[in-house]
Amino acid sequence: MLLGFDDLHSFADLDTFSQNIPVEWVESALQLTAKASIRRRRLPPEQVLWLVVGMAMFRHEPIGEVVRRLNICADGLANEALLARSGLSEARQRLGDQSLEWLFKRTGQHWGAERYPQDDWHGLQVFAVDGALFRTPDTPELREHFGSGNTSSQRQTAFPMMRLVALMNVRSHVILNAQLSPYRRSEMRLAETFTAQIPDHSVTLFDKGFWGADLLLTINRTGDQRHWLIPERRGLVYEEVEAYSEHDRLLRMKVSAQARKRNPELPETWNVRAVSYEVNGKLKTVFTSLPAKQFSTAQVAALYQERWEIELGFRDIKSSMQHNAITLRSKKVELIYQEVWGMLLAYNVIRREASQAAVSYGRSPCDIRFKPACQFIAAQLIVMAAAQPASRTGARLSELRAGVASLFLDDRPRQSTPRTVKISKTRYPVDRKAAPLK
User: Fold this and answer.
1) Closest Cα to residue 124, out of 269, 290, 312?
2) Tell me: the pLDDT tens digits for 318-343?
3) What would the pLDDT profile of 110-147 be if each residue is shown by its tens digit?
4) What's the pTM?
């Protein structure tokens, strides 16, 4: 169970972060690090963990300033005399990335399945799966590990890239699970690692890049009432089995030999429902496992528009939390993973706090604007870090939630025109002899 306001545990003087995370979860996460020490350090592991989370909240600040602002130190007030820059880096390396990954996934699985007002779509929860990229500093170590994409001229891009694939609750925007990998890993293969975490009685929205019989049939056949929705993929060969209406049909397709080789349990053929709808005079089609007897053509067509919510979630992370910083700040492979897991955990903490505030006012979690909520919570973190006495923390957290609840969004703008990319012109010379990827 999650901790309530009356049961707050004084943990590293950072109750704001840990208010909804049981201390037992944090202790279990810290046990994953293999670098134990009997020394009484000024930065013990539990405080380093919250430092990494705080780095995501204060992306525009140096790490030393994050320590000072949040007062992360076991020996009184944090200052330059107590915490050297090299000591902060060494403390992060001792912590590693597994603790942050475990804690993020444990909390995400619990928070993402929580139910909120307007969270129900005809008895099903709505989730989405999609991928995003993060740019890392360009060092030989990071380029060797993460790799990078090719340009139109088959030369390497300027920076190594990390790939993220996430499973998100599109109504609360909480991320249930995620996978991080080097650039060249397939998004579909990464998504297959957490399909078992999709809750029952749900429908998951995919981008067309996740089309595959193995992935989709596994979701549909395991669990109870787990459905999917994905755009039509061009070039598919199928036969029409039944026509429910002019824009609603049941199709039969063959399962590819490659898919059956990877999973011999797949059938030779499978049936999918094809729903078509018109957008700006053009006919678009989505495939789904939702049965036609329970869900109408109009309902299915309207539901797929919610897939854009996961794109907004990625925008909130990259733009609002990271202040449009294109490149991650860490310079070692393990610390890159640690930084991103901490970023995802911080994002979920903000999202859940906003969701709880919305519930207390009878509103939907997506009605609260993320950027002002993130800025408000970050400002209050600084105040709470120096708050005395500690017994006032519960009351201050109640005030914090009330403040977040004042940030409701009355008229949320929607994308009305297709996305376009402008040509980027640079005044710097381009290395035309850069070697392509092997």
Assistant:
1) 290
2) 998 888 888 999 999 999 999 999 99
3) 888 788 877 889 989 999 999 999 999 999 999 999 98
4) 0.82
Q: What is the per-residue pLDDT across 363-389, written as a single tens digit (0 to 9) for each?
A: 788 788 888 888 888 877 777 666 544
pLDDT digits (tens, 9 = 90+) for 162-212: 999 999 999 889 999 999 999 989 999 999 999 888 999 999 999 988 998
Q: Which residue, chain included where needed, has tokens 């019989």?
A: 213
Residues 167 and 105: beta-carbon distance below 8 Å: no
Q: Which residues pair with 5 in a beta bridge?
A: none
Cβ pair 104, 341 in contact under 8 A: yes
Cα separation of 77 and 148, whole Å?
42
Look at strands 161-169 and 125-135 and give their pairing: antiparallel
Which of these, 110, 117, 115, lies nearest to 202 by C-alpha position?
115
For 263-308, give the secondary structure using H, E and C. CCCCCCEEEEEEEEEEECCEEEEEEECCCCCCCCHHHHHHHHHHHH
Which residues 6+ apart lie within 8 Å of 346 measured at CB?
53, 54, 56, 57, 321
Distance in angstroms (rounded) separating the CA atoms of residues 63 and 59: 9
Q: At what angle do helices 370-385 and 63-70 cross, to 10 degrees?
A: 60
CB 306 within 8 A of CB 173: no
Do 160 and 147 contact (CB within 8 A), yes or no? yes
State how far the Cα of 330 lies from the Cα of 160, in Å rounded to an integer.
Answer: 13
Taking the CA atoms of residue 176, residue 212, residue 285 and residue 117 in that order, the dihedral angle to the nearest 10 degrees is -20
Residue with tokens 């030779």: 268
Nearest alpha-carbon partner for 71 in 403, 318, 390: 390
